[in-house]
Amino acid sequence: MTEAIKVESLRKSFGPIHAVQGISFDVAQGEVLGFLGPNGAGKSTTMKMITGFLEPTSGTVKVNGHDVLENPLAVKRAIGYLPEGAPAYGEMTVRSFLNFIADIRQLSGKTRSERIDEVVETINISNVFDQSIETLSKGYKRRVGLAQAILHNPDILILDEPTDGLDPNQKHEVRNLIQEMAKNKAIVISTHILEEVDAVCSRAIIIASGNLLFDGTPKELIEKSDIGNIDHAFRLITTCETEDTEIA
Amino acid sequence: MSALFSIYKREFTSYFVTPVAYVFIVIFLFMTGIFTFYLGAFYQTNQADLQPFFKFHPWLYLFLIPAISMRLWSDERKSGSIELLMTLPVTITDAVVGKYLAAWSFTAVALALTFPMWITVNYLGDPDNTVILASYVGSLIMAGGFLAIGSCISAFTKSQVIAFVISVVISFMFILSGFPMVLDLFQSWAPQALVDAIASFSFLTHFTSITKGVIDIRDIVYFAALISFWLYVNVVVIETKKAS
Predict the structure, then answer these.
(1) Which of A32, A85, B43, B94 could disulfide-pair with B4, CB 3.0 to 4.6 Å?
(2) Hey, are the CB atoms on A76 and B17 less than 8 Å from each other?
(3) At what angle do helices A109-123 and A138-150 cross, to 10 degrees?
């Protein structure tokens, strides 16, 4: 069986800045991979390379066996992506926005209306369905972004901070949703909330200054800390790296 | 539905959900009226044609078209929606051409709404309607030229103001290169071939020849080449700068 996502020695430099310095990992169907790391660690950059928005400086990304550089459209069809900040077309209503996504994703006929109804139902956005997106609160905007990402029922979901800006209830709903979808999808989420990793992820990766520092289950991550605290483990892993680079 | 058409449809309808479309159309119609009746002396010339109307189109477009095109890519880059668009299963060419055609269709709507002008001149006299039709086609094609420049420029910057100003300046050079003042400057010393080459780059030269009622294949080829060139550069710019 081919891995849903296979990333090999991926690098990205912006001029003198090395945002991602040769990281490799893969994600299988049924896994929820949590992407952790301090701000500016290269999480979003890595996600942008997997989704084909950024071109890697070197290294390969394969999604369902398709190379992202050789066959970008096949990769983009297989992925549902929530970019950081959930950008959308503000002047559109949620209805017309989701219809636009359905057009682009080539959903038609019965499946199309069924999918839109289903997603609006699961994400709980029916009460703002005819409101323009720019008038929505941060939480609703994020949910519209999420709706857009799962509309075509993709095999692979890449979600950049899906719970950022949501209230505790909404966070809980989104986590449940991710867990429900996890059975038959490969999901990658980035987050700053470490309990989230323990709650929804089957695996966690920690990236700091472009390097992969940890790859294992949330349980293994917690065990790194002698006091059994995930935040402590995170600090332990990411801060000792910073000291290392300073010495180097 | 193809990706290009989906983008076209989204863009085109987006003009009409914001006040942009209505403001633009009203200003466009108002300005064409002023230019035709006052500066163009439509009545005083006592001729049943729309020359005074079409004569000012290059100048109107010089300012109004960049106002449409400035948001095409700048806005997309500034709001970050470009990341959404470029991670959907569409090619950059689909996106560039879809957006461009939507903007062009919008200007076609604005241009079509000047039809009372055509009714007026037919009511007052007996104009050559084939010349008028050719002029309308010519005007639309020229608008397409201005739009292609503007779309490309807006891909370079996140700032709509910068996109507007630079587009006006470049469009102005494309108009100016056919102006007698500029050509006279070269006439005295440059070889005729160079003068002709400069003149042949001008929107004015090609547009004027179309408004005489002759749609020459060379004028069409000129605009088609110009539009293709700017849109090609547009694609390249998006490809290299989309994430910056």
Answers:
(1) B94
(2) no
(3) 150
Cβ–Cβ below 8 Å for A53 and B7: no
Q: Could you tell me the pTM of the whole model?
A: 0.90
* Total residues found in chain A within this entry: 248
Chain B residues in contact with A90 (beta carbon < 8 A): 79
Average pLDDT over residues B90-113: 96
- Gap between the Cα atoms of B139 and B108, Å rounded: 9
Beta bridge partners of A132: A93
Here the ipTM equals 0.90
From chain A, the residues in CB contact with B75 under 8 A are none
Cα separation of A222 and A212, whole Å? 17
Q: What is the pLDDT of residues A20-69, one digit of tens each?
A: 999 999 999 999 999 998 888 889 999 999 999 999 999 999 999 999 99
Alpha-carbon distance of B29 to B77, in angstroms, equals: 31
Three-class DSSP category at A5: strand
Residue B86's closest chain A neighbor by CA?
Answer: A53
Contact A87 B90 (CB under 8 A): no
Please tell me the distance from the alpha carbon of residue B223 to that of residue B141, in angstroms, as a whole number: 7
Instruction: Please state the φ and ψ torsions of residue B32, each to the nearest 5 degrees.
Output: -60, -40
Distance from first CA to last CA of chain A, Å, rounded?
41
Give, in order, the Cα–Cα distances in Å from A243 to each of A23, A93, A206, A222, A237: 20, 48, 16, 21, 11
pLDDT of the residue at B181:
75
Residue listed under structure tokens 């559109």: A92
- Would an 8 Å CB–CB cutoff place B21 in contact with chain A? no
Query: Residue A100 is encoded by which pair of tokens?
Result: 């636009």
Task: Give B128-154 pLDDT, tens digit per residue.
Answer: 888 899 999 999 999 999 999 999 999
